[in-house]
Amino acid sequence: MCAANSMPEAPETLSSQEIHHQLTKALANLEAVDATIQAAKTCLKSALTPGPGTAFKPASNAASHRRLHHPGRPRRIDADAELRAFVLARIEVMTFEALAEAIAQQFPPERCVGKSAIHDWFHSARR
User: Fold this and answer.
1) Measuring CA to CA, which residue among 118, 77, 125 is closest to residue 96?
2) What's the alpha-carbon Rg for the chain, to the nearest Å?
3) How many C-beta atoms lie closer than 10 Å to residue 75's C-beta?
4) Which is more confidently placed, 54 or 116?
5) pTM of the model
6) Taking 80 as the threshold, does the pLDDT of residue 94 lie above it?
7) DSSP 3-state assignment of 47?
8) CB 97, CB 66: distance < 8 Å
9) CA–CA dist 88, 78 (Å, integer)
10) At what angle do helices 96-106 and 115-125 cross, to 10 degrees?
11) Which of 9, 42, 58, 74 has the fewest CB atoms within 10 Å, i.e. the most exposed one?
12) pLDDT, averaged across the chain
């Protein structure tokens, strides 16, 4: 099945020597792929296994912890789940100015945000 799809000519028109040559090339390609996979497995296993005399330390979550416990008030978009969902649903297809206008039409004034607030939130959320 696979060999028939990868062969450029119909099997009836190929000589047995040509078929043997193509199958040999296919086997060599598979062995090269297998060697690459084995090398990748070895690298991953060695990265996950601590060396002698060293303790395995997982990556620090200090940055995310600090972000969650940042002093001050959260951004209005982060604090209002409905507003955040509204912004996320439209951020990829609207400009910041058009999005601010859509928010002004959909939400009461105390829940509205301007284009600069949307811009700041969008760029800080991408980090």
Assistant:
1) 118
2) 29
3) 16
4) 116
5) 0.46
6) yes
7) helix
8) no
9) 11
10) 110
11) 58
12) 80
Alpha-carbon distance 1 to 66, whole Å? 56
How many beta carbons lie within 10 A of that of residue 102, not counting itself? 14
Range list of H helices, 49-114: 62-68, 76-79, 81-90, 96-106
Per DSSP, 73 falls in state: P
Whether 117 and 77 have beta carbons less than 8 Å apart is answered as yes
Give the model's pLDDT for residue 95: 94
Over residues 39-76, the pLDDT tens digits come to 788 877 777 776 655 555 555 667 777 767 777 788 89
18, 38 Cβ separation under 8 angstroms: no
Contacts of residue 119, Cβ cutoff 8 Å, sequence gap at least 6: 96
